[in-house]
């Protein structure tokens, strides 16, 4: 990438779009893209993207067993699934999406007040966290904020979306605890095993905006990558764009009203000793409409020194530990320095 082309106030919305550009600038052209590349969708390939109904899962043992089995299968094969009847009110989901749109709909000068490349800041607004290390820039803007274990004070957050960010965090933290209990059971462990390991203590929220793109076949909203956390909960505005690498083919994640997308992160693959997979995924952009999403990364506190290795109960003489133990901070530092370069960060920690 020609970094000289990237100024510190480069934003994709409204910046590039307001210039009326008709071609993607060279430093956004992604070497992973292929204009002739084909992908399959859940519809035309008759695939059943995992969709789990969580209604009654806390009270009905039969329903819970079925959901645990479904999570086990999805986490082993896809690394992704969707959940409905998850307990977060539809009004909260809608307001969260509206809050993202309000932030990115502000005047550029108002948004730029939150601009920084200091990832230790409470709120970070910029165009790509790995702008100076990745092979190319991604076609998106992002607001990044650490929301747990220490909830920000309201004045620390953008006024146009602060209330819903706080409320949505509380809702996702509650859901996340339930999901980790189900995942623990799916691994053959006691329900609170992963919770007791403090896997659910921290939450980082990313507000993504993917603008319309004049040449969507040349760039990506997010390059191929796996997530660096234990578990990600994703809310979208129902505009398609997320694709999962499944059996060496890119598969569109279907739009299901009211559903949340859940995916296994690298750290969960590590502690599960490869039982569950942190699947690679990407985001494609389009020329007809922008896309909004909210990703909640659930992990230990971002700068935690807690050490994680393969869980003892999942290791045996026939199935030895496949990773060395690491701290969350060490893993995150390696992940950030590598950037979204299309390679696995987990490989660095294999033994």
TrEMBL record:
Keywords: Iron, Metal-binding, Oxidoreductase, Vitamin C. InterPro entries: DIOX_N, IPNS-like_FE2OG_OXY, IPNS-like_sf, Oxoglu/Fe-dep_dioxygenase_dom. It holds the Pfam family DIOX_N. Residues 201-300 form the Fe2OG dioxygenase domain. One of its GO terms (biological process) is response to molecule of fungal origin. GO terms for molecular function: 2-oxoglutarate-dependent dioxygenase activity; L-ascorbic acid binding; metal ion binding. Belongs to the iron/ascorbate-dependent oxidoreductase family. This is 1-aminocyclopropane-1-carboxylate oxidase 1-like. It comes from Salvia divinorum.
